[in-house]
Amino acid sequence: MKFEALYDEWIQTYPFTRMRSSTRNRISSAKHLLAIWANTPINKIMKQTYRQYMNSLVSKYKYNTREGILIVGKMIFDYAIEMEFLQKNSTDNYMLPKNLDYDEDEQKLIFLEKEELIQFLKIAKQDGLAIDYGFFCLLAFSGMRIGEATSLQWKDLNFEDNSLYINKTYYNPSNNKRKFEIQTPKTRSSKREILIDQSIMDLLKALKQEQVQFIKKNKRIYKDQGFIFTCSEGYPHTIKQFFNRLQRLLKRMSDLNKHITPHSFRHTHASLLIEANVNMKVISHRLGHSSVSTTDKIYGHLTRGLEKKASQQFSELMKDLHI
Predict the structure, then answer these.
(1) 68, 78, 91, 138: which has the highest count of C-beta atoms within 10 A?
(2) Exposed e or buried b for every residue in 203-216, given b needs 16+ CB within 10 A?
(3) How confident is the model at residue 318 (pLDDT cuts 50, 70, 90)?
């Protein structure tokens, strides 16, 4: 059996148990393997052959890209063993080497400092569309992923206790507003209930009142599906639309030399919580991470920076003490 034939058989079964976005990622990763082994018999792809190929990618791709290729390769060969096409998995016990040109664990997170966030939100309120200010305030004050915020519905909000329930995500690779899908999150931990600042809930309450009035005037064209951030026809705004809105507003911050994306507001939320000395377990829950170790892996270097600052402040405080 050729590798391409094995892949074709495996990919027919994979989507039955996975979300479409996951299938799309696996197909993308598998293209790297197909590019070199499509016509190679699978019993000729030995462990040494596989490792040599994976090692050759270190200088070409970042760790996350190579990890995706390794994962899909293991899945395909696991399938071959399950179907008794092979007896051994060529990907077994392979450890991905880190890129030599940068430290994966200390890679820079792009986020807004407190003053920069305040400046941006002022611009969004003064110069943005009516929906911009509420949306970006919610991202910054909740730490939600943009897909989670885009799919948010009024039924997910509890105005009595200022909480919101995050239980789904938005999927629309075509960016056609009518062809969206609402999917369940990737992990169980992504489903979570978090508390939101009263000021943000008041913003959303005002947005709801405006939406109610708009629907009354536009019943014939508005397809009410209960979404919070919608276009004039009731469909949720696409992620691309919010990305474009963000870039337009950022142009008014001429002194900002950062590549800010909607995901940067999630990093901003986490960094400001860390700066406020919020417990890492609480931060992990708000972000929907599967464990505190996941949160620490991403943001741990920020806490270590605060520890260093605390040590310096303590030393300054005790400078009159001669030891």
Answers:
(1) 138
(2) bbeebeeebeeeee
(3) low
Q: Cα(250)–Cα(256) distance, rounded to whole angstroms? A: 8
Q: How far apart are CA 114 and CA 254, in angstroms?
A: 17
pLDDT digits (tens, 9 = 90+) for 110-168: 899 999 999 999 999 999 988 999 999 999 999 999 999 999 999 999 999 999 999 99
Q: How many CA atoms lie within 13 A of 154 on its CB side?
A: 15
- Of 227, 259, 261, 268, residue with least CA distance to 244: 261
CB 135 within 8 A of CB 242: yes
Span between the terminal Cα atoms of the chain, in Å: 75
CA distance 234 to 319: 63
Query: Cα separations (Å) of 171 from 29, 33, 137, 187, 235?
Result: 19, 26, 22, 15, 13
How many Cα atoms sit within 13 Å of 44 on the Cβ side? 9
- Residue 189 to residues 167, 292, 294: CA-CA distances in angstroms? 10, 11, 12
pLDDT digits (tens, 9 = 90+) for 64-102: 888 889 999 999 999 999 999 999 888 888 888 876 544
Which two three-digit tokens encode residue 46? 């030995």
Torsion angle of C-alpha atoms 223, 224, 227, 233, degrees rounded to 10: 30
Q: Which two tokens stand for residue 138?
A: 């919610």
Distance CA 298, CA 198 (A): 28
Name the phi and psi angles at 169, rounded to 5.
-145, 160
